[in-house]
Design a protein that fits this description.
By secondary structure, the protein is of the alpha+beta class. It is about 30% helix and about 30% strand. The protein is built from three helices and six strands; from the N terminus they run αβαβββαββ. It has helices spanning about 5-20, 40-50, 85; strands spanning about 25-35, 60-70, 70-75, 80, 100, 105-115. A three-stranded mixed β-sheet has the order 2-1-6, covered by helices on one side. A three-stranded antiparallel β-sheet has the order 4-3-5. A hairpin with a 5-residue loop joins strand 3 and strand 4. It is elongated and about 55 Å long.
């Protein structure tokens, strides 16, 4: 379960930013999580619940996840399509000369401080 390591990294990053910005408490952390990132949101949330109570900054903080759809582009016909639905083969021209353009993200998008 690599989600444990990911949450550890998120907590450390948010704590570091909180210290730099002199934030006493964080109310929420928003992540952008790609549909094919390999991260399981439920596992991530379980790890978050465990780790947040151990942090002076994150005790009550909510973890929000914004899912980014996986989109692939075809190098031959230049069309885009849903990666999950059609995988590697372009549904427009049948080419396998494709690559992922979104959907692999794992980004801390926003940290909201308590007022």
């Amino acid at each position: 379960m690599h989600e444990l390591g990911l949450v550890t990294h998120i907590v450390q990053t948010v704590e570091e930013i909180s210290r730099e910005e002199q934030v006493k408490k964080v109310s929420s952390v928003t992540l952008e999580l790609g549909e094919v990132s390999g991260v399981i949101p439920d596992y991530l949330m379980d790890c978050w619940k465990y780790f947040r109570v151990k942090s002076q900054f994150l005790e009550e903080a909510e973890l929000r996840i914004l899912e980014i759809p996986a989109v692939t582009v075809c190098e031959d016909c230049k069309e885009t399509y849903s990666t999950l639905k059609f995988k590697k083969v372009c549904p427009h021209c049948g080419s396998e000369a494709t690559h992922l353009i979104t959907g692999n993200e794992f980004i801390i998008k926003e940290i909201e401080a308590c007022s």
